[in-house]
Write a structure and sequence with these properties.
Helix content is about 65%, strand content about 0%. It has about 190 residues and is mainly alpha-helical. The protein is elongated and about 80 Å long.
Length: about 190
Amino acid sequence: MSSRSHPAVHPLDVEIPQLTEPAAAAAAAENDGRPDDRFRMKDIQGMPGTPTNLALRLFQFAFAAVSVAVMAATSDFPSVTAFRYLVAALSLQCLWSLSLAIVDIYALLVKRSLRNPRIVAVFTIGDGITSTLTFAAACASAGITVLIGNDFNNCSQNHCTRFETSTAMAFVSWFAVSPSFFLNFWYLASG
């Protein structure tokens, strides 16, 4: 027995039907000169350039913007490092989500598919970085909010409700980023 690897799938001796020239020409004539659409893969909702992805990007932007606005409205957030990190991470999330929403709007208006592996790789890496930053910032802010509210019982002198609202919006923004990241990553892994 040799140490070479053996293929797991063995080819079958089956002839694959080929589309002949007259059949291809007839199919193109039926579709006004375009190739036959029966053999084109459909866009999966949630992938870049689809209405579902646009909705996800707008939700990401909206929740991140609300989180930043609520946190920035408090006077004492700069005194806590975790709250400054939350504002910085979610500001980056706002910029990222808004820029990709604009790209999705453009792709939808010109009816262009964004299935280029390089473009999807950039989207995947960006979503992975921003979702990690958003989740870490939300967790850090949640820890400080619990520390101030429950452990120190110091909500009368702080803006605990605003801190909790901002942290909750950060988690919701992270929940909206996760499907985008996983769908893009799945497309890269399967392609």
